[in-house]
Amino acid sequence: MLFRDATLADGRVRDVRIDGESIVDVGTGLDDDGETIDADGKRLLPGMIDAHVHFRQPGFPHKETWLTGSKSAAAGGVTTVFDQPNTEPPTVDAAGYERKAELASASLVDYAINGGVTDDWAPEELLEKPIGALGEVFLADSTGEMGIGTGRYEEAVKRAHDAGVPITVHAEDAALFDESVIDRTDPDAWSAYRTAAAEIEAIRHACRVAADLGARVHIAHTSTPEGVEATSEAGMTCEVTPHHLFLSRADLEELGTFGRMNPPLRSEDRRESMLRLLADGDIDIVATDHAPHTRTEKDAGIWDAPSGVPGVETALPLLLEEARNGRLGYDRIRDVTAANVADIFGLEHGGRIEAGNRADLVLVDPDASVPIRGEDLHSKCEWTPFEGRRGVFPELTTVRGCVVFRDGEFADVAGRNVRR
Ligand SMILES: NC(=O)N[C@@H](CC(=O)O)C(=O)O
Ligand SMILES: [Zn+2]
Ligand SMILES: [Zn+2]
Fold first, then answer.
1. pTM exceeds 0.90 for this model
2. Which end of the chain is more exposed for a tag (fewer CB within 10 A), N or C?
3. Relative to the alpha carbon of 145, which ligand is closest?
4. What is the enclosing helix (H) or strand (E) of 255?
5. What letter does residue 102 receive in the DSSP assignment?
6. Quick check: CB of 52 below 6 Å from ligand 1?
7. Contact 45, 9 (CB under 8 A)
8. Which is nearest to 167 in space by CA: 208, 203, 132, 192?
9. Which annotated residues bind Zn(2+) 2 (predicted)?
10. Active-site hit among 50, 284, 289, 360
11. Does ligand 1 come within 6 angstroms of the Cβ of 142?
12. Could you tell me which of 324, 322, 314, 316 has the C-alpha nearest to residue 376?
């Protein structure tokens, strides 16, 4: 297959030839010997590698399944996902890993299965499995109540570091949550409760522990500029979610409990700073923390609704909309959604359009901006916190050379475990 006259992230116009699972040539005037896709005026980007999703199986197939989650991924230009361990059973031992691996074989996109840490985890057998990362390691309870103490955290970092496995940390310190707001019932109460200081302090602590052990950790869903600064000062990496880039406490009146997640939405000032830090190169990657719950589950009081919002299908479209408006470069989008992710999580031959790399590709018409509608998305939960905002959705997505999504249709192809 040949993409003819595609505009790459850096602005070069090139032909890109793929053969089997790989990109074999990037050049000009390449011969076509099979299907040719006219990519004139379109952007060809490496597929997004989403280092943080919750596809909910085993345990919660009413929220999401590997099939629905991976369709949502493919339609949003995501070609690899890292699934988090807070399923039921949690992915904390060999049996938990194997159970998830069976179900994950239904995925249309490639995937990695992360291992988790609880007081009941079985580190030896878990770390012998080909896990994507150890994480998210929960320093406070979130969905699944897998929060651990600092002694266990140190043990986990030590073991994963020795095993050469990347570590992803959910950094919040429950001791710094503001108990004085628990009588409030408005949706902003969650943001007031799970304070910015609780995240910032936990990030500092998580990085300090890792640095003392000579290890490297990656901080999940960083929601504060102070947290970003703490990570880079410590020589660690961090991710930001689309919701912390594009939503803030100012949206909570409209979103209600559908805007509840951990860490919570922050002030409009902090949101703007996060977007600037992303554009300037100070935030390493964007990961979605795709965390679907049903409408019925979310439609509860602010203290009872589960935390989490879907996002795997809308992340790249929202970023491409920023590019369309000139607020973010395409090369930066390539780095934070693909190239840097491949580097941080050790995915060889991924994340860049170069001869010899995996043919994980996304073709988009950069001007095809449309309003985002929950009912048009493919996640089982059928709602989005970005309802009505604009996004630029892909026309075509390939995973290792297979067209998995094209003009609204999915092919029946099999995703693979990237660590196998
Ligand atoms: N982010 C969330 O609010 N929820 C996530 C868990 C998590 O990532 O903390 C979930 O699994 O629902
Ligand atoms: Zn988390
Ligand atoms: Zn998460």
1. yes
2. C
3. 1
4. helix 252-255
5. H
6. no
7. yes
8. 132
9. 136, 170, 221
10. 289
11. yes
12. 314
Domain 48-348 has CATH 3.20.20.140: yes
Residues 6+ apart with CB under 8 A from 22: 349, 356, 357, 358, 359, 400, 401
**Looking up tokens 């009941």, which residue turns up?**
120
pLDDT tens, residue by residue, 133-150: 999 999 999 999 999 999
- 378 belongs to an annotated ligand binding site: no
Q: Is the distance from CB of 70 to CB of 79 less than 8 angstroms?
A: no
**Phi and psi angles of residue 110, each rounded to the nearest 5 degrees, phi first:** -70, 160
Element (H, E) at 23: strand 22-27
Bridge partners (DSSP) listed for residue 134: 115, 167
Report the alpha-carbon distance of residue 132 to residue 401 in Å, rounded: 22
Question: What stretches of 56-146 adopt beta strand conformation (E)?
Answer: 78-83, 110-113, 134-138
Six-digit token pair at 308? Answer: 């989490």
Paired tokens of 400: 């290792």
Nearest to 6 by CA among 408, 281, 420, 398: 398
What is the per-residue pLDDT for 32? 83
| Burial of residue 368, with CB atoms counted within 10 A of its CB: 0-12 exposed, 13-18 middle, 19 or more buried | middle
Please name which of 327, 379, 340, 303 lies closest in space to residue 76, comparing C-alpha atoms. Answer: 379
User: Which residues have CB under 8 Å from 149's CB, separation 6+?
Assistant: none
Write the DSSP string, 134-159. EEEEESS--TT-----HHHHHHHHHH
Q: Which ligand is nearest to the CA of 142?
A: 1
Residue 41's region, left for phi above 0, alpha for psi from -120 to 50, else beta, is left
Q: Tokens 């879907």 identify what position?
A: 310
Give the tens place of pLDDT for each residue, 22-74. Answer: 999 999 999 988 899 999 999 999 999 999 999 999 999 999 999 999 999 99
DSSP letter string over 263-302? SPP--HHHHHHHHHHHHHT-S-EE---B----HHHHSS-T
- DSSP element (H, E) containing 99: helix 94-104
Mark whether 289 is an active-site residue. yes
Q: How far is the CA of 44 from the centre of ligand 1 (A)?
A: 31
Tell me which residue has tokens 């080909």: 130
Domain ranges of the chain: 48-348
pLDDT (tens digit per residue) in 247-261: 999 999 999 999 999
Structure tokens at 16: 């890109």
